[in-house]
Every structure is written in C-alpha cells, then in structure tokens.
Specification:
Layout: H1 15-26, H2 30-37, H3 47-61, E1 70-74, H4 77-81, E2 85-94, E3 97-107, H5 115-127, H6 136-145, H7 149-166
Parallel strand pairs: 1-3
Antiparallel strand pairs: 2-3
C-alpha cells in the first residue's frame, strides 16, 4: 500500500499536523469533531442573499473601498479555477468617466456548509478589494474582519480534505417539501 499524499488543502501545514488530520479521518473521528463544532448549514441560498450578506460585511469594515457589482455562487469555480472564491476588478472608460466593476464569486460548495466557512471565504475575498497579495497586511485585515480567521481556515481545509478523501459531504441539506396541492 502506497502512503497517502497529503490533500492539496493541507499542503502548507506541518507534516505532523497533516498526519494527525489523516489519523482522525481514518479513525472516523474528524467528521464528529467538525459536526460538533459547526452543527448546521447557513440559510444563504440565493445569489441575492449572498450579495446582501457579503455587502453587509464589506460595508461594516471597508466602506471606502468601492461598491460591489456582483456577488454570486459559482458552480464551475472549484473545477476550473482551483479556487474557493475569486475577486475581480474591471475598469472601463466610458466617455470621460472611469467605471470600475468588482465581482466576488464563491464556490457553490459553500451553499451547503456552516456560516463560519462562508464568512471566512467572504472575508478573504473582501480583503482582496484593499490588499491584492497574500501578505502580512492582507491577513491582518482578514483577522480584523474575522478574529478567528486562521482557525476557521484550518477547519475548512480539514473539512475539504475529509470530503476529498472520503467523497462524502459532512452536512446534509434537505430540500424543502413541495407545497401541498389543494384538494
């Protein structure tokens, strides 16, 4: 049997920590730990609700950075871009004015995850509106908006590793029942 390569989500962490996550998965304890810490999924189901949620965070912490043009869940994001979220800025000249459009796209997988994970991704993408690179100032801004940013990021990465290794989601979302037809 060949040794498992660490999941790409944990690539930057110390080997001992990655091995500990692998042991918890093999023992069937990681899912239980994550479900206990993050028991349920959020209620942000539509792109409009996501736009409102992300805009509220942005307006609370970065009012002077500019407005968001679009915020949406993107089902192709993880496959095509190998990313969990993206932030794009497009500037266009229209007559004598310069117009900027800013978009945030979040992988659709976050529809069925806890609010803490969605918030961490939203905070990450909002921080890119002010700080382009992943440097010290960027992570300080992330921690300013979400004090538990690093712990939530690690928990998210362990969750994604679990899902990659086992092929199973952790949170089951039940579809609402269709309305009853009149008799």
């Amino acid at each position: 049997m060949q040794p498992k390569s660490p999941p790409k989500y944990l690539a930057g962490y110390p080997p001992a920590l990655v091995e500990q996550v692998h042991r918890l998965i093999e023992q069937g304890r990681l899912a239980e730990m994550l479900l206990q810490k993050y028991p349920s999924v959020h209620g942000v189901r539509t792109d409009k609700a996501l736009y409102d949620y992300v805009s509220e965070i942005k307006n609370t912490y970065l009012r002077n950075v500019g407005q968001l043009s679009k915020v949406m869940f993107d089902s192709r994001l993880q496959v095509i871009r190998h990313a969990l979220g993206t932030h794009t800025s497009i500037s266009r000249v229209q007559g004598t004015k310069l117009q900027a459009k800013r978009e945030i796209r979040i992988a659709s997988i976050f529809r069925d995850m806890p609010l803490e994970f969605l918030r961490m991704i939203a905070v990450h993408e909002i921080a890119h509106m002010k700080e382009r690179g992943h440097d010290k100032a960027f992570y300080q801004l992330c921690r300013h908006m979400e004090p538990s940013y690093h712990q939530i990021e690690f928990d998210l990465r362990t969750c994604l590793s679990y899902m990659e290794i086992t092929g199973q989601p952790l949170w089951a979302v039940t579809a609402p029942l269709p309305p009853e037809l009149p008799v």
